[in-house]
Amino acid sequence: MLPYVLLALIAPLLALAQGDDGGISGPTTSADAAGYSCDASKCKLPDCNCASANPPGGLSPSDVPMFIVFTADDAVQSYTLDSINQFLGHRQNPNGCKPKMTYYTSLNYTNYTLVTDWYVEGNEIADHTMTHVGDPPDDEVYGNLIALNALAGIPLESIQGFRAPFLNYSVNTLKLLAKAGFTYDSSASASLPVTDPNTDAYWPYSLDNGMANDCLMVEGMCKGEPKLPGFWEIPMYAFFDNLGVNGPHLMDPWLDNANGATKVNDSATLEYMQNTFTAHYKGNRQPIGLYTHPIHLSTTYPGVNAPNSTINMINQFLDWAQVQQGRLNSFAPLKCSTPQIDSSTKICNGIPQNEAGLLSHCPFPDFPFYTCYGCPTEAPTTSNPNPAQQVPDGEQARFRLPSNCSTAFWDPIAGKCLCTGSDWTGGSTDGGANPTASSYVPFNGKGYSVPAGVWAATFVGVVGAVVGVIGVF
Ligand SMILES: *[C@@H]1O[C@H](CO)[C@@H](O)[C@H](O)[C@H]1NC(C)=O
Ligand SMILES: *[C@@H]1O[C@H](CO)[C@@H](O)[C@H](O)[C@H]1NC(C)=O
Ligand SMILES: *[C@@H]1O[C@H](CO)[C@@H](O)[C@H](O)[C@H]1NC(C)=O
Ligand SMILES: *[C@@H]1O[C@H](CO)[C@@H](O)[C@H](O)[C@H]1NC(C)=O
Ligand SMILES: *[C@@H]1O[C@H](CO)[C@@H](O)[C@H](O)[C@H]1NC(C)=O
Ligand SMILES: *[C@@H]1O[C@H](CO)[C@@H](O)[C@H](O)[C@H]1NC(C)=O
C-alpha cells in the first residue's frame, strides 16, 4: 500500500522538479547591479567575510582544499537515500571518513525516521520549507524546524541552513532566516564563469555588506542590501557548457541538454562538468556543487527508470574529481565520530540495528510515515507543525528530544539520555566496517585516473564544513 500511495503523490513532485526547479539561463547579476563594496580590513574572519572570488583569509589557492559540495532537496524517503548512496556510499574523504552531504528537507512525503537515521549517520539536515513553496512565509520556515525537531529528533541548533524551493526567495526570506538564527542561506546562483574577471562565483560570504549575487533577479537586493551581519550566503556554483555564460547548468545538470542540443548527452555533460571543475581547481578553488533532486536518479522507486548511463556518468565525474592525498587529516570539522552504543541495546535512536521494532507507523492517508517520537494525532501543517501525540492504549507517550542530549543517545521510550559525554569514537576513522581502509575504490573500477601529484586534496565535503574551514584558517 505504501509504495502505491507514495507513487501517486510523488509523481506531481517529479513533474515540478523537472520543470521549473530553479534553473538559470544566463547571468543573474552584474558588477553594476551589485554595487557591492566591502572593506576587508574591517570585515574579518571568523564572523565576517567579504564577497570575493579569492579564497578567504588571504590564503593562496594552492593552500586551500578543493571542495565538492553534494546537496539533495525535498522529501527524505528510502528511495532518495538509496539514490544518494549510489554516489556517496562507497566513497571516502582523504581522512578516511565517509563524505557527508546536506539534505534540504521539505516535509510533504518525508519519512521522519529516515531523517533521524541520516542525521545520526553524520549528514547535515537543513530547511527547505514544510510544503515546498517559493518565497516562503514565516510559518513554512519555522514549521519545518519544529516538525523536524519533534518527529525526527533533530536538535534545533543543528539546523543551520536553508534553501528556497525553486530557488525562489526574497530579501524578506533572508531577513527572516537571519532573525531566526540560521547561519546561512544557499539559494543564490553564481552565474558567471570563474574565468570571467567579473565572476560572481564568490567564496561563501557574510552579508555584513549586503548580497552580491542574484542582483538582477531579486527585488530590493544588492547595493548594500540586505545587511545581515554574521549571516552567510553559500552561492550555488553553476557549471558552464561550450556556450559559456549562455550555457549555465545549476541543479541536476545531467537532466539538461548541453551545448544547445535538443537531447541529453551524458558525454557532453561529463565534458563540461570536468571543464568547469578544472577552471575552479586551477583558479581560485571556489567549491564545486552537485545539487541534486535525488528522486530522479532513484533505482528503487517503483515506476522510475533512472538511466544507468547518467548514474555512471555522475560517478565517473566523482571518481575523476576525487583523489586521495591525505591532506587535512587533522582538520577537526571534517573528522568523523561514531556514537558508541552496543548494537543489542534496544533504543530508538536513528541507528537501524538499535531502533528495529521500536518505530511507530503513522498511517496518514496521503502521507504515511514512521517515527520514533510517537505519531501525532494529525499530520503536521504550517498552522500546527507539532500536533499532540496519539498514545496507543496501554502505552505511554514518547519523550521528545531534550536540548541537552544528542539524538543518537536519546531513548524516547524511557525518556533517558544514555550519553555520558565520552561515548564517541574520535579520530580519522568513520568507525564503519573497515576503519583502516586507506585505498579509494572507484565505483565501477574504471574511473578516469588522474596522475598523482597533479591534483591536490579533492574531496566531497559537507556544505557546513565550508563555513567551518573558513572559520579556522
Ligand atoms: C520508511 O521508514 C521505514 C523504517 O525505516 C522503512 O521500513 C520504510 O521502507 C520507509 N519507507 C519509505 C517510503 O521511505
Ligand atoms: C502538502 O502540501 C500541500 C501544499 O502544497 C498541502 O496543502 C498539503 O496539506 C500537504 N500535505 C501534507 C501531507 O503535508
Ligand atoms: C515565487 O513564489 C511566489 C509565492 O509562491 C510566487 O508568487 C512568485 O511568482 C514566485 N516567483 C517566481 C519567480 O517564480
Ligand atoms: C555527445 O557529446 C560528445 C562529447 O561532446 C560528442 O562528441 C558527441 O558527438 C555528442 N553526441 C551527439 C549525438 O550529439
Ligand atoms: C541498470 O543496471 C541494473 C543493474 O546493473 C540493471 O538491472 C538494469 O536492468 C539496468 N537498467 C537499464 C535501463 O539499463
Ligand atoms: C538534561 O536536563 C534535565 C532537566 O533539565 C536533567 O534532569 C538531566 O539530568 C540533563 N541530562 C544531562 C545528560 O545533562
TrEMBL record:
SUPFAM superfamilies xref list: Glycoside hydrolase/deacetylase
Alphabetical keyword list: Membrane, Signal, Transmembrane, Transmembrane helix
Transmembrane intervals: 452-472
Origin: domain of life: Eukaryota
InterPro entries: CE4, Glyco_hydro/deAcase_b/a-brl
GO biological process, one term: carbohydrate metabolic process
Signal peptide: 1-17
PANTHER family found in the cross-reference section: CHITIN DEACETYLASE-LIKE 4, PTHR45985
Name of the protein this chain belongs to: Chitin deacetylase
Organism: Roridomyces roridus
